[in-house]
Amino acid sequence: MQGEMPATHVYSPTARALHWVTVAAVLVMIPVGLAMSYRGNVLNIWDELTNGLYSAHRLTGFLLLWLMAGRLAYRLLHGVPQDEPTLAWWQKAASHLVHWLLYGLLIVVPLLGWIGVSLFPALTIFDLFDLPALTKPDEEMAKRVLGIHGKLALATGALALMHIGAALHHRLILRDGVMRRMLPWAK
């Protein structure tokens, strides 16, 4: 689809802003999560940097959870644009599946992280305040929950990379309107 895209096929400015803030949060969360885990669990380094990484990860995850709850509410209340008309039925189905999986994972993963740090307990953020505890401490359960959290976070990253790959494929190879629908400057 060349030229201007009908406004009905473009996400709203609010939906686009929420999307790109989520992208930024995920781009921070995954590398920080890997770095803090490597420093703390592999190298056994528990210094100010490691504690700062854990605090940044917990705070960003907590905020991401509420951002995703807001995104989900916004999507359910305001809907989404019609599918790109050039897509085959299976592409539309795959797109919807990936979007709902990402929504689900971006709510479940931070929630599991919050439950895990509640179980540990490790709720302090930069020695300034504590996140509210969701459960009583149980270190063994914390290890299991945080293990699942980590595996699902990696799955989220893999799914996000597939999503990015598909968007770039549509933009650079197919040159259709799929990626333009979410670009910040779209009209």
Protein architecture, described:
The chain has 187 residues and is mainly alpha-helical. It has one domain: Fumarate Reductase Cytochrome B subunit (Up-down Bundle). Helices cover 68% and strands 2% of the residues. It is built from 4 helices and 2 strands. It has helices spanning 13-42, 48-78, 89-119, 139-174; strands at residues 124-125, 129-130. A two-stranded antiparallel sheet has the order 1-2. β1 and β2 (129-130) form a beta hairpin. It starts with 12 loop residues before the first helix and ends in a 13-residue tail after the last helix.
Quick one: biggest sheet? 2 strands, antiparallel
Second rung of CATH, namely the architecture: Up-down Bundle
CATH hierarchy, class: Mainly Alpha
Helix count from the secondary structure assignment = 4
SSE string, helix = H, strand = E? HHHEEH
What gross morphology would you assign? elongated
| CATH fold type | Fumarate Reductase Cytochrome B subunit
Strand order of the largest sheet: 1-2
Structural class: mainly alpha
